[in-house]
Specification:
mainly alpha; Arc Repressor Mutant, subunit A; Tetracycline Repressor, domain 2; 10 helices; elongated; disordered C terminus
Length: about 220
């Protein structure tokens, strides 16, 4: 790589990082290219040398940052042999990543959903790869007799990720994030999925609690 190529790559990375900060602070729709350029320390027109428009920049953020998160996930699982422990590590890492990258979490959890192109046209293959890691853990558990054979890894990956994703959104949107114990949440989610909510051997329907723990919208008060 030449010095010129290295300089261009550094400038492109600076624009991406600036866009993450601006999208998180202002919201995707309200953010302007000029805001991103100012934060990155470049001219407005420089943005268009690297990206077609604001939405293209948002999708590039998803692609490249998901690649980073996937690498971090694989590193978190390395050295762990037991599939159940790897599932616990998966959940724990997912929540730690949003704490370690709060602006990125805001963009991926909230702002990305503002993109019509992402929701309707885009194929989020990096996300599917991220989910596929969990499906592989289910298959590993089945091979060792730790997870039931009738569990569909494809359905399990979406159900498990859905739980992690919803809790992550609640953390991002919460006014008092310190009230969230995400380490405990990871253990709870893993426990619910691995053991179920009904005690083993007890097939009776559990009675409803006398006092609801969530509001009418099904969300904990924050």
């Amino acid at each position: 790589m030449t010095a010129i190529d290295s300089h261009r790559l550094q400038k492109r990375d600076r624009i991406i990082d600036a866009a993450v900060e601006v999208f998180a602070e202002k919201g995707f729709r309200a953010a302007r290219i000029s805001d991103i350029a100012s934060r990155a320390g470049v001219a407005d027109g420089t943005i268009y040398l690297y990206f077609k428009n604001k939405e293209d920049l948002l999708l590039v953020i998803f692609e490249e940052k998901m690649e980073l998160l996937l690498e971090e996930l694989q590193a978190a699982l390395d050295g762990i042999d037991d599939p159940i422990d790897r599932i616990r590590a998966y959940a724990g890492h997912h929540f730690r990543s949003i704490v370690n990258h709060p602006a990125l979490a805001q963009v991926l959890q909230v702002e990305l959903r503002q993109s019509h192109r992402f929701l309707r046209e885009y194929r989020p293959e990096k996300l599917w790869e991220y989910l596929g890691v969990f499906a592989d853990l289910v298959r590993q558990g089945q091979a060792r007799g730790q997870i039931r054979q009738d569990v569909d890894p494809f359905l399990a990956q979406w159900a498990f990720f859905g739980a992690l994703d919803e809790i992550s959104i609640q953390w991002v949107l919460a006014r008092r994030r310190e009230r969230f114990n995400l380490d405990q949440a990871a253990e709870q989610v893993v426990g619910i999925f691995l053991r179920g909510m009904v005690p083993q051997g007890d097939h009776a329907s559990p009675s409803a609690p006398s006092t609801p723990s969530a509001d009418a919208g099904g969300r904990r008060s924050t």
